[in-house]
Amino acid sequence: xxxxxxxxxxxLLRECMEGLQIRPDGVYLDGTLGRAGHxxxxxxxxxxGRLIAIDRDGAAIExxxxxxxxxxxxxxxVRSNFSDLAQVLDEHHIEGVDGMLFDLGVSSPQLDDAxxxxxxxxxxxxxxxxxxxxxxxxxxxxxxxxxxxxxxxxFDYGEERYAPAIARAIVRARQEKPVExxxxxxxxxxxxxxxxAKREKQHPAKRSFQAIxxxxxxxxxxxxxxxxxxxKALRPGGRLCVISFHxxxxxxxxxxxxELAKGCTCPPDFPVCVCGNKPxxxxxxxxxxxxxxxxxxxxxxxxxxxxxxxxxxxxxxxEV
Length: 320
Ligand SMILES: C[S@@+](CC[C@H](N)C(=O)[O-])C[C@H]1O[C@@H](n2cnc3c(N)ncnc32)[C@H](O)[C@@H]1O
What we know:
Layout (H helix, E strand, L loop, with lengths): L12 H8 L6 E4 L6 H8 L5 E6 L2 H10 L7 E5 L5 H7 L5 E7 L4 H5 L25 H7 L2 H12 L4 H14 L5 H11 L2 H4 L7 H11 L6 H11 E11 L2 H15 L19 E3 L9 H6 L7 E7 L8
Parallel strand pairs: 1-2, 1-4, 2-3, 4-5
Antiparallel strand pairs: 5-7, 6-7
Helix pairs in contact: 7-8, 7-11, 8-9, 12-13
The structure holds S-adenosylmethionine.
The site of S-adenosylmethionine has 22 residues, from helix 2 and strand 2.
């Protein structure tokens, strides 16, 4: 049962609202509803406008039904993966959107609810699924993925320099018996690290848990289809705001938006343009917007947040 005490402080809230340039009669989309912190601020600014809010986690949808109850007639809640954004918009006959927000990663309630198995701070069965109907769990990743694949995700998604030693320790342990809980996994990781790494300020399992969570939820794979569908569905002048929390996400957001912002793709030695491609978006934030010191003090979770904003141009959307 969802504990309604679990809350989430919205990150870069003022900056997102300014970035979205909300019009009271516009159509807006929050692709990562969570505990509706940003959604609530969007919907408060609407008169005849509408908000479509998406989350793959059923608990987020349930909590939003309560939190946004007052604005029920303006809000459409959709349980879906944002990688299926084009389909969601199609199914609900939404032809153009005036602004979209994606606040990536996990919400505080997901981390704080011990039963979800996201956190090395609470003992629970290894799960880590944002969508509790999804087939892949952390248990499957930890107990069945080949050692090389474990090493790769720990290194690539967790930037864990001791990835080979941790992958080896996991495989050795599971030969005896399956690794069943978050505490068992955290202990295994701790045991695989050299003494110096155990003395670091952050928890020794932090990077590995992040890596496994990203793999379980295919968090990086969902970004390119979402960014393309978002750009395509935005009306000219519509804003796309994306908050990322680690360098891997930010790199994908930055690169994809740069590609969309590129006009002509003809080789540089062509005397005239033959491709006819025009920039699909204009980059508003050359450098990402970071939280103020004050925000980080009040909400340490905001520490690594980066907000990038792009604006849809008036040019026709041509697939390249
Ligand atoms: C950081 S939280 C959003 C918090 C929200 N902005 C607030 O202020 O309450 C991210 C949310 O996005 C959801 N999410 C992450 N990846 C998703 C995806 N690919 N599709 C749909 N929802 C996703 C998570 O389940 C989580 O609830």
